[in-house]
Amino acid sequence: MASLQGRFFTRKQEHVKVTYEGKEEEWVKVLTIFTYIDFSSNVFTGEIPDTVGNLTSLILLNLSHSTLKGSIPTSLGNLKKLESLDLSQNMPTRMIPTQLTSLTFISFLNVSYNLLFGRIPTGSQFQTFSETLFLGNPGLCGFPLNMSYNNIAGDSPPIFGDGHSILETEVYLSAALGFIVGLGIII
Asked: Is the entire prediction scored with pTM above 0.70?
């Protein structure tokens, strides 16, 4: 498992700690002028650092197919040049930040197969994205999805009749499926 953490000291350099296979390395003086970052399928753990929002030259950011969790940082709304953002198949467990609607150049946003909930923000480019880019998030509702739920506050996952949220139910189903697959492999 790899872990990615970071913080900025200045606009010109970044201090990043990368933990991989139990070894921690520090990367210093990583330029912030990156335009394309593809960390997909790296099995990163932990949360997406807020400091990613300081990489204002980013055009493409791909963090898909890892085990990132927590919330999608609101600081990603600072990436005014961003054209493509792929956060699919991770485990963010919060709402899609409305700050992402300020990204006027974004033409591709994939948040499918996470544990996101709440109403999909409206505005700017969000109205042009297809339904497939939001699938696999049973707690999401609003355009372009045809699903809705009655959550007045909009800040917590929907609750089933048995008192369990969609997030809890999905975790239980994932654990059960993992157990069944593991048992099948052993047999």
From this structure: no
Pairing status of strand 67-70 against strand 91-92 = parallel
Token pair 């912030």 in the structure block, residue: 32
Give CA–CA dist 11/20, Å, rounded.
26
Cα distances (angstroms) measured from residue 78 to each of 81, 82, 95, 115, 121? 9, 9, 18, 23, 16
- Residue 33, H or E segment: none
Q: Based on the domain organization, do 149 and 185 belong to the same domain?
A: no
Cα–Cα distance, 58 to 83 (Å, whole number)? 8
Structure tokens at 160: 């089933």
Q: What is the pLDDT of residues 33-55, one digit of tens each?
A: 568 888 888 878 888 989 889 88
* Residue 130's CATH number: 3.80.10.10
Question: Domain total for the chain?
Answer: 2
Burial of residue 3 (number of CB atoms within 10 Å: 0-12, 13-18, 19+): middle
Task: Give residue 168's domain range.
Answer: 162-187
Helix (H, G, I), strand (E, B) or coil at 95: coil
